[in-house]
Amino acid sequence: MSTQPIDITNPAILATIPSTSATFLMCPPRLYDVNYVINPWMAGNVHASSRTRAAEQWQRLYEAVSTIADVQLVEPQPGSPDMVFTANAGLERNGTVAISSFFHPERQGEEPHFRRWFEQAGYKVMDTPRATPFEGEGDALFSTDGTRLFVGYGPRTVPSSHQALRKIWGIEVTSLHLIDPRFYHLDTCFAPLEGGYVMYFPEAFDRASLDKIEAFYPLEKRIIVAESDAVCFACNAINVDRTIILNNISSDLRSQLESRGFDVIEVTLTEFLKAGGAAKCLVMKLSHAAL
Ligand code: ARG
User: Fold this and answer.
1) CB of 150 closer than 8 Å to CB of 140
2) Where is the catalytic site (predicted)?
3) pLDDT given at position 18
4) Gap between the Cα atoms of 49 and 214, Å rounded
């Protein structure tokens, strides 16, 4: 089920890894903890995660992602235990990054650290206004053909922030209303996949939003996730080409993905579920490697 550790220092193994242009930003979990409650998953889990186990699980994820992409690292910072969830740093495309304005004060301290990393790496940095919270790639996902930006709103990101994104990239934005507090970021319940597929948990959205999803993705391209998989963060999936990396899922969902040609890599991420995040929350996609 879960991946075997891959020795990425072994040249024989490295030679078997296909070269890729995908790049992801990750943050090692040295300072990770559940220190406060800002989503339903954190309730009852304050200081309940094991940093040792979290480090092991993150390392497995890092190794799995490294087989399909380049990984850049940002240093964790004291007082910012959720910084491991780099998906929330901002949204990047074509060298421009819109830095998040977190809804909760508990995470606002991360903003200058992420901004500094992007500036030093040579990205064009755009700030988003504090008055209109926007939580980055956690709530904003491009269709894999790059023609559409799906942006969630409700628990965190506000709809009035979507206009700024439309302007920055001159891209069509589809706003999706998140109505279940458990699925408080778009990337917890919606995953555009290569081949024009989408994997999502319909009950997380209102009817008008489902209509928009169905208008963009024809029936045969929709992979519907059951609640039992959705609560294991099945939709929180990293996808590069035909590889999908995600937390443990049911054999039924696994075969659905495999029957569409995907290679599925499951990485156990229980310690991060306690903070309300899994595979996709732990990475941020970058369109080019840092300079
Ligand atoms: N504890 C973090 C929060 O509530 C988890 C963030 C998960 N990230 C994500 N992209 N869904 O903000």
Assistant:
1) yes
2) 185 (proton donor), 281 (nucleophile)
3) 45
4) 38
* Gyration radius of the chain's alpha carbons: 18
Q: Where are the domains of the chain?
A: 23-286
Reported as type and span, the H/E element at residue 108 is: helix 105-108
What whole-number distance in Å separates Cα of residue 29 and Cα of residue 60?
A: 12
Nearest to 114 by CA among 71, 74, 161: 74
The ligand 1 atom nearest the CA atom of 88 = 10
Q: Where are the alpha helices (DSSP H) in 128-226?
A: 162-169, 207-216
At 71 the three-state DSSP class reads strand
Q: How far apart are CA 169 and CA 275, in angstroms?
A: 31
Strand pairing partners for 140?
A: 151
One-letter amino acid at 158 equals V
Read off the amino acid at residue 251: S
Cα–Cα distance measured from residue 198 to residue 183, given in angstroms and rounded to the nearest whole number: 16
> How many residues are listed for the chain in this entry?
291
As a CATH number, domain 23-286 is 3.75.10.10
Reported pTM? 0.92
Q: How far is the CA of 201 from the centre of ligand 1 (A)?
A: 17
d(CA 86, CA 136): 9
Over residues 229-254, the pLDDT tens digits come to 999 999 999 999 999 999 999 999 99
Q: List per-block mean pLDDT (blocks of 10 residues) for the chain, which spans 291 residues.
A: 44 46 95 97 96 97 97 98 98 97 98 98 95 97 96 96 94 97 98 98 98 98 98 98 98 98 98 98 86 52
Note whether ipTM > 0.95 here.
yes
User: What distance in Å separates the CA atoms of residue 36 and residue 161, rounded to the nearest whole number?
Assistant: 26
